[in-house]
Amino acid sequence: MRVLVTGGAGFIGSNLVNSLIQQHEVGIIDDLSTGHRQNVHPDAWLRVMDILDSNLDDAVAEFAPDRVVHLAAQASVGESIKDPQRDWSVNAEGTRRVASAAAKAGATRVISASSAAVYGEPVVVPLPEDAHKEPVNPYGRSKLAAESLLAQELAPADVDFASFRFSNVYGPRQDWRGEGGVIAIFCAKLAEGGVPTIYGDGSQTRDFVFVGDVVAAITAALKSGRSLRDGNGGGPAYNVATSRETTVDEVAACLRGASGHSEPFVYAAARAGDVDRSALSAQKALDVFAWDARIPIERGLAETCEWFVQNG
Asked: Which of 139, 170, 199, 267 is catalytic?
């Protein structure tokens, strides 16, 4: 296959590219605003550009992909609140433009990154794809809109497509700044010999999925012989998650063991807007393209901690 990855110099994207390039021709479009050139595999085709660039169609056509994985995004909730228009432009309009360019270039399947943020406050745990959606911030709203725009562009073009709603992805190469999650923040602090801070009492849960499992999900969907689309022509979505809750205290205990730090983490008051529980059901992905998360969190945390120590 010829696979184009937008955001291929970023956290998830570069891990995906390094896996795919062992068997396929891989291209990257990335403006390097949050991705890093050192993450780019030397054998990958690279075009440094913004997905909102007027020359996007030409760049995608030049690579002529069979498959497109759209990961480029404005991924910070905080930034979405500061500048909701920019967030909307990148996440919603950017997705529409990538989808349009992919269809014009003859791609036959497009996978676009969405987020658990589309659901808002969870009504059940773990959340299935058909759960009520009421995003609580501009980031979640732009991601939900992107799913609809993806369908509007690709369904009439008869391109197979899906939106992947990632839960809390963690692993090597994640930036602890910007969109960095709690695990990246903890690991960065431990790598410099500091003591991480837990906001809240540590009993709050998240669905932490290792980046290697996310790469496996995307790869399985790219290769699947089954269509990813709904039978009614709407926009299909798949949760990419473990379906399991893990408390922040459990993460802290694992990281202390992996890093050899015996000092307890510091606790501070919970932050406004943080939910108490969160997990997504990944049953649909298992049913359609035979994927489920297989990397135990203990192993994933150990690998992540080691990467931060070596690259901090």
From this structure: 139
